[in-house]
Amino acid sequence: MHSIELVLDPAAEQAVRAAWAALVAADLPSMGRHTSETNAPHVTLVAGEDLVVPTGLDAPLPARIRPGGLLLFPAGPGRHVLGVSVVVDRALADLHEAVHRAAPGGVDTSLPGRWAPHLTLARRPRDVDLPRMLEVLAAVPLPEELGVAGLRHWDGETRTVTPVA
Predict the structure, then answer these.
(1) Statement: the pTM of the whole predicted model exceeds 0.90
(2) CATH number reported for the structural domain that contains residue 79 in this entry
């Protein structure tokens, strides 16, 4: 699987990593447990089997994104993905559409009109852990806005990232 991802500026990345760290400190599932150097807070714009590194995007990168509420995606019996939703304003919608024009072939859930942008906090926590996770996360709220640093292409086969110009 390949993906095109929006990455955060250092202050915003640190804010999300603080939430990850709080979950780890409480002995709960967290993206903070994934120690790969390519593991960074991000918003996936498109994911697909054969995505190319896009060039010549015809929409600017938004300067900031706004986190919304917590959300859950199903991830098997008794499990979910826990994330923070991202508010889709005009700038983010324009970028999302531009990325799809430049790198077509995304899976259905990443297409315009079907996309649920988010920052992942934990993959596959047990449902019984969710109340405690919500309690822990309430103590480390994200800022009202998160700065954007750029885009990257993730290649899941080689586990490498390529910055997108």
Answers:
(1) yes
(2) 3.90.1140.10
